[in-house]
Amino acid sequence: MSRRQYTRTRQLKPGMVIDQSVIDKKGRALIVKGATLDDFQIDGLLRLGVSGIYTRDGEAEEEDLSAIQIPDSVKRVVEKERVEDRAKIKISEDVKKRVGEGIQYLYSNSDTQKFSETANNIAGELQAAIETNEAIAVDIGALKVSDEYTFKHSVDVAAMAMIIGKKHGLSDQEVREIGIAGLLHDVGKSKIPGEILNKPARLTDDEFEVMKQHSVYGYHILKEKDQFSQSIMMGVLQHHEKINGTGYPLGITGDKMHVYAKIISLADIYDALVTERSYKKGFSQRDAVEMIMAMTAELDIDAMKSFLGSVILYPVDSIVSLSNGEKAKVVSNNPEYILRPTVVGLTTGRVYNLSEDLACASVIIL
Fold first, then answer.
1. What would the pLDDT profile of 313-345 be if each residue is shown by its tens digit?
2. What is 3-57's CATH number, 3.20.20.30, 3.40.50.720, 3.90.105.10, 3.40.50.300?
3. According to a count of CB atoms within 10 Å of the terminal CB, is the N or C end of the chain lower?
4. What pTM, to 2 d.p., does this model score?
5. Which DSSP letter does residue 277 get?
């Protein structure tokens, strides 16, 4: 049984679990919800002047918000304030089936003569889905094409990279290319021993050194085909590089990273964070975004802005819990402040414009 309580900062002790995220004035996550506090974090909260935070005992319990009855007076406010979300990419079941089969074929048959043709066709299917409804945002929860992680992840990353690339100002041809690079960014894993690739636990340091070679293997698979542009190959080779030089396989800095790699890196990290694996739980979309926002030393800031402008965390009509204890319905999103939509309190009918109303500065979505 989980118990949530407000704890004054001076009463916090190492080992306590925080039940809210602590955000700075720029919207960056200083501590994410669910983290186990240590002395360093507690000292940081004291220095920031944070008087208290919510903590919890035990595992967090999922609250069913869908069954809440909304008074008619609140419904009228919701209807008045409601603004449809930006168009999101939608993929039909037929397209999902073709894309899922295509990506599985590529990863299982890297020597096929139809490799580049198949990759181009899959990217074309995704691009058509984006263009059909002029999509400028993505909801990865709707992209499931396979139960197998590598295939699902590759399609998620490709679709996200194409949406981010579009927001970033890439041409239609470049959007198609970054989709191909996203689809194939992990194709080098086909050369990694199965006992490492499919290990149902975290890798040892030695195993991870082997795994890190997959981006090099992927680059050589594409290079040997002699049918892919240098940009696509750089997107595959560099997708684990970091702008501060701490990435792999080459340890290059941001000035040497291709724009495709900068964008695919973001999509890759985000999808990995929110996806549940046998050895870890998936983070919530909000926590994943907060963690990415804290990685300004490692990720390209312009690509990050395009990423943040492409993700809808709280779709209009979803129900959320506010830090003041009230439940609320999301009525509109601000692309500039994706963590702070406009919501309507379900008991008071109050409109909380979390991104612009200074009176709401202390209110956050839990």
1. 888 999 999 988 899 999 999 988 888 999 999
2. 3.90.105.10
3. N
4. 0.77
5. B
